[in-house]
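Protein modeling request. Please complete all fields; requests missing the sequence field cannot be processed.
Requester role: graduate student
Desired output: 3D structure, token encoding
Chains: 1
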Amino acid sequence: MTQTEGLHEVVTRLPQGACLLPDRGPRVLWMSGDDSEDFLQRMTTNDMRLSVGGYRPTALLTGTGRIQAVFTVIRDGEGYWLIAPPHGSEALRTVLQGNIFFMDQVTVEDVSDQWDFLYLVGHGASNVVELLGFAAAEPATVVRSGNRLCLYENLLELPGFGLLIPTAETDGVRRAVQQGHGTLWSDLGEYDHLRIRSVRGGYGYEYTGAFNPLEVGLDAICSDNKGCYPGQEVIARQVNYDRVARALALLESDQPLSTGDPVKLEGRPLGEVTSVSSVSADPTWPSLAVVRSRQLAPGQKVTAGDRPAVVAAMRQASLV
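Delivered output (320 residues):
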């Protein structure tokens, strides 16, 4: 196996392999201060009452329930690591900073110049994690090796781990991946292909201000046992009154689709294409669309732009 194969090839041809996903830009923040937990609890969608060593994904919404940012919070000692969207540390810091009241004892620092957050995926990922000195990581729990942190992530329906490491040690992690017979993956197109196939939204595609979390498969990070946060009333109304009208749909076509293509059923507009695969080796040209879901089911034929397509699968809010 070469050291720069695509993730799709590794997963299909070498099931026991491991792939290190490429670094996707500055994305690590550090939050500290006595009011940090209360601040995160009142500002984000998930329950942020974390024990030391715990972590959860969460989201910042607008007052109308639209997505501002989706990120992961890790509690570590007296503070919190915030893992921002790709290339999104500064944008997330700006939004958080703008909501800190003058009496809040909260500080947010962008530490992306000192820390990297990398994803390691594949059925052989645990072997590489052991080479890095980590004990076995369990879901929702962080393990430590020196000043490095490792958290279990089920990414793209594959076993995987998120690694928070000092930037000076990134090359050492890459060597450990190669030593563990893994691959240094470099093709973002392959990542998006598998993400689309898994019917998972992506940053800048579905996780944008155009949608709310229930519409794009993020209902699991919207807690129903906490107090108010921006957008909470909108989310609660949608759940309580069964009004989550849109969902993610996986479309297949014999021709490549384009983002922004209108999706129609018998001429009636239902939504639009939001993510497309660029992997030409897949003859079904999978794409994701956010559509009005009550009128669709897997197997139905639609049009996307001027091209025919089939609804292959859907991801709907489980709270409905």
